[in-house]
Amino acid sequence: MSGGHRYRRASKATTLATLAAKKAANEPIVMVTAYDHPSARIADEVGVDLVLVGDSAANVVLGYESTVPVTVAEMLVLTGAVRRGLESALLVADLPFGSYEASDEQAVRTAQRFVKEAGADAIKLERGGTSVARARAVIQAGIPVMGHVGLTPQAATALGGYRVQGRTAVQAEQLIHDALDLQSAGCFAIVLEAVPAAVTELLAPLLSCVVIGIGAGSATDGQVLVWHDLLGLNHGHVAKFVRRFADLRAEAIRGLGAYAAAVRQREFPAPENTYLMAPEELEALRTRLEAGSAQPGSQN
Ligand code: KIV
């Protein structure tokens, strides 16, 4: 076990009780994904309530085609980095595909690694069905669990692609049952992803746990977006439910382009980026070099 996730917890750090109180007070809950230390620091500075190290890391930071290939080892590294950047937000880590489905024992062992080795406060797993028993087992082992229904990217192939879920009455009824089962298993929160707002409006009043939406309309206790989507760091297709609140990719291209041009024009580094040497030390160095101290093999 590596351990080593030393971090400070602020006295006003988010807890499960804080989240429940926000729900009771109808105070919107803010959740965002993050995958590294500087992003975690920014999320904490803004006062975000929950930070998720999502397995969306597979796509947005590791360059995989889907979330399926990301490994526990990769997710542990990212979760540890986020942990060291957070003092206030509650840290949730996604259990990657293939790390929890086989048995309750496997789910508990993987969840324990995220808590023990990377400092996660809670874990998230996807789908209803057999995941309900996995969630219950992890909760019984003392680790808070967030459920996730609707579009669950780990099962995208089985769901027919990255598409809105619960559009038919039969599908929506199943989704509602899955969410209720996850709540009965003891989940402190459930993410609803890419479901019609009308389904959320029917489901949310049935749930006493915290309901976080992403592409699920506004009848939830809070919202989550992927860091790279909301800050405009991705290129290519963006889902309908994303709003870009910044255009950091354009700003990064501008800044990197300016750096490249400054290097090529020998305009960078400028005097203010350069270290000085005391004139007498420089003179002494010149004298030593002239005396031959820089010849190969001579050292005095
Ligand atoms: O992996 C992820 O980023 C997620 C959120 C979209 C909820 O599961």
Please give a handful of descriptors for the protein shown:
TIM Barrel, 300 residues, eight-stranded parallel barrel, binds 3-methyl-2-oxobutanoic acid, alpha/beta
Q: Tell how many strands the DSSP assignment holds.
A: 8
Kindly report the oligomeric state of this protein.
single chain
**Order of strands in the sheet with most strands:** 1-2-3-4-5-6-7-8
Tell me the strand percentage band: 5-15%
Quote the average pLDDT.
94
Sketch the major β-sheet. 8 strands, parallel, barrel
Give the CATH topology: TIM Barrel
| Number of distinct helices | 11
Distance between the termini: 48 Å
Spell out the helices and strands N to C: HEHEHHEHEHEHEHEEHHH
Q: What percent of the residues sit in helical stretches (DSSP H or I)?
A: 40-55%
The helix/strand class is alpha/beta
C-alpha Rg, in Å? 25 Å
